[in-house]
Structure formats: C-alpha cells, structure tokens
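Sample 3 of the quickstart, ligand uridine-diphosphate-N-acetylglucosamine:
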Amino acid sequence: MNELLIRGGVPLHGSVKVKGSKNASLPVIAASLLTDGPVVIEEVPDLLDVRTMIEVVKSLHADVNYDSSREKLEINAGSIKNQEPSCELVQNMRASFLVLGPLLARFGKARITLPGGCAIGSRPIDLHLKGLAGMGVEFSVSGGMIEARTDRLRGERIYLDYPSVGATENIMMAAAMAEGTTYIENAASEPEIVDLANFLNSAGARISGAGMKSIRIKGTGGLNGTSHSVIPDRIEAGTLILSAAVTGGDVVVNNVLTDHISPLVAKLKETGVYIEEVDISAVRIKKGGRTRGVDLKTLPYPGFPTDLQPQFMTLLALSEGTSLVTETVFENRFMHVDGLLRMDADVIVEGNRAVVQGRNALQGATVQASDLRASAALLLAGLAAEGTTIVSNIDYLWRGHSGLEERLSGLGAQIEWRTSSDQEQLEISGE
Ligand code: UD1
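Result:
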C-alpha cells in the first residue's frame, strides 16, 4: 500500500484535462465480448479497474492489446470459447459481473461467481438476474457460483424495480443479440448507459431510447468489430472541479461534457462557487468568498451522483453554516467521514444522513482511505487543510483515476507519493 503526503493550503491554478470515463470503459470492454471482429476503444484510462476488466476478458480467451500510453485498447473476441471468467477477478471488482449478459448472448450459458462483498454496502444482483430470467435464462446458485443457461434468449418487456446502472447494462447487452425486441422500463439513464448503447449500435445493434426511462433493443443475429471513443469521466471532472473549489483556486478543467455535470454545477452555484462554461468542453472554477452550506441528496442520474458525495462533503465541511447530506443510492457510503473528523471537520452521521457543520479550516492529519471516492475526498481535504496530511491506503485512488495526483501537482498542489511499508491488500470493493 502507498500513501500520499500533502502539504495543504495551496490554491490551485492552471488548466487540467479529464481522462476517459472508468464507468463507461468497463461495460464497453465487457460488450466487446458480443462482437466477432476487431474492436478498437480509445480514451481508455490506465487505472486498476480497467486493468482488472482487461484481465477478465483475457480470462475468457479474448485477444487483447492495451497501449496504456496512448490509452488505446484493441480486443478481438471472435474466437472466445471460455464461459467462466476468473473467480478472483469477479470477486475483486463487481463490474466484472457485466460479462454475464454478453456470455449468455454468445453461448447461451455462463458460469460466474457471485460478486464479492463491498465496502460501500451490500450490493445485490437480483435485478440483473430477474431481468435476464425474464428473457428465458435459468439460474442455479450453489457454492457461491451462478450457473446460467438458456436455449434461446428472447426479447421481453422488463421493468426494473430500481434504475440500476449495472442491471440496465447487463440486460441491454444480452438483449442486443436476443430474438425479438426487449424493452427495459425504469432503466438507468446515466451517460455511461448512452455511451454503451452508442458503442453497441456502432457494432450493429439496434438500441433506441438510451438515456431515457424506457430503452428499446431490437435483437440482432450478431455484432461486428467497431471502433469507439469513451466519453470523459464526469466523476473525475467533478473531483477536479471540487479540488479547485476547496482550495480557493482558479482552474480550467478541460474535456468535460457539461451536460453530464449539471447536478454538480447547480449545487456548486448554490454554495457560491463561481463556475462558468468556457466552451463546450471546458469549465472554469473560481472561489470568491467563503462558500455556504447546502443540503444534498444523492439520486440516480440526473440527480446528484453518489460517486461525488464524499468529495462534495469535503467542500461542505469548509462551508459556512449547516448542511444535510442524504445518501439514497448506497448504504454505508460515509466511510470518508472518519478521516474528515480526524482533520477537525464537524460531521454527525445518523443512518443515511450526515449533518455537516462547516468549519473555518481543516487541520492536516494522518488518515486512512477506505474506498475509491473516500480516498478522493480525503485527498481534497488534505489539499485544503492547514499543515500536512498523510492519506494512507491511497492505492484505492488508482482504482478510478490515472495519475490524478500528478495532474493536481501540475496545478501547484504539493503532493508526494510514498511507498508505505504496510503491505495490506486492497479490500474487495465493488464500485
Ligand atoms: C454503478 C457505478 C458506480 C456508481 C453506481 C451508482 C460502474 C462500474 N459503477 O455501479 O460507480 O456508484 O452505478 O451510480 O458503473 N441494486 C440492487 N439490485 C441489483 C443491482 C443494484 O438492489 O441487482 C442496488 C445496489 O445495491 C445499490 C443501487 O441499486 O444500492 C445502485 O446500484 P447500481 O445502479 O446497480 O450500481 P452499479 O452498477 O453497481
């Protein structure tokens, strides 16, 4: 495990570029398994979850070539034969479960381990299984393994009790090659769903309505090789924007699709942060006086993203007045609070709510990251705090960002990456 040493209190200045989206890359890599020709995916960030997903498709015997310096990934799944992805990989990253839909579409069967437990609450897969069962898949679960089998995947009208991102993706991928038409009602409408549909359509699928509550997928016999460029990462964009806001800097963040961050922009404006669209893909952030506390509730898109709640809480910890943060998407997603408290924040957690009383300043401390977004929140707190902060277990940050600390250093942040003697493993975590 590594740690970051941050000398806080330096306002960030300059411009910085957001990388391709982790949460768009992972399903697109899984979806490559549906195709029988070469697939080229660009803007694929070099981070741990992407590397894990690459290993998953390799474990199914796809040919993969990843040029990490050019962020370009080539996959040929034309001759995959294996229908059982590596258990260890699936348990280490919940998103690996996204290969289930493609495997069922290609082979009519798959054997996959139940995804592991997770640091941000128990995350069932019932909606994935219920949707696929509606399309004619039979499941049996024994010894932690799921056996899935179907003679014929058929289109169906599927209603999701909750707009799960992963379930929408898994069902959409299976439906792309099913017989007949599938409708997913109450589907997730995250930008990553739209990106996946665009990828699948470019490979010959017939999907309409992605990004809306009802998605229609007309099944087709097979998908071809294609090329695709992944959308920018809206969560990384938000993290960089918030790092400028908490330090009181003046930063231009490039490669942002501003529509995708509108819930964040609305909330930032409420706090008093100055944020303007410089052009279609860049925003400038400047903090004037002290920010004001606001109430915040996480919701499925287009609501405020749960993946930015920890980082936004760091801003609230420094804003004037009282803020109420309500987490509705995941249970147990206040793992960053312990670290913030050590840094002198005033936060009281009760169930899925946190009451944040803003302080004039945070104090540097030694804190421990517990998951990806918690590590980003503590990094931001360290940038804003007086004195020196050490964030240990910082490897979690690499699950979702590629060289974030280097890019922050380019904006003037004083950050040092250090190898810790502690050899603890990254805990199973599932974002
Ligand atoms: C994806 C994102 C993650 C983000 C989350 C919510 C990826 C790789 N990860 O995760 O970063 O935080 O969306 O925006 O894209 N649920 C069920 N049953 C199911 C599936 C989900 O009850 O079958 C529940 C989960 O426990 C959770 C909620 O639904 O409470 C949201 O989960 P979901 O939308 O599926 O998130 P992921 O796809 O896992």
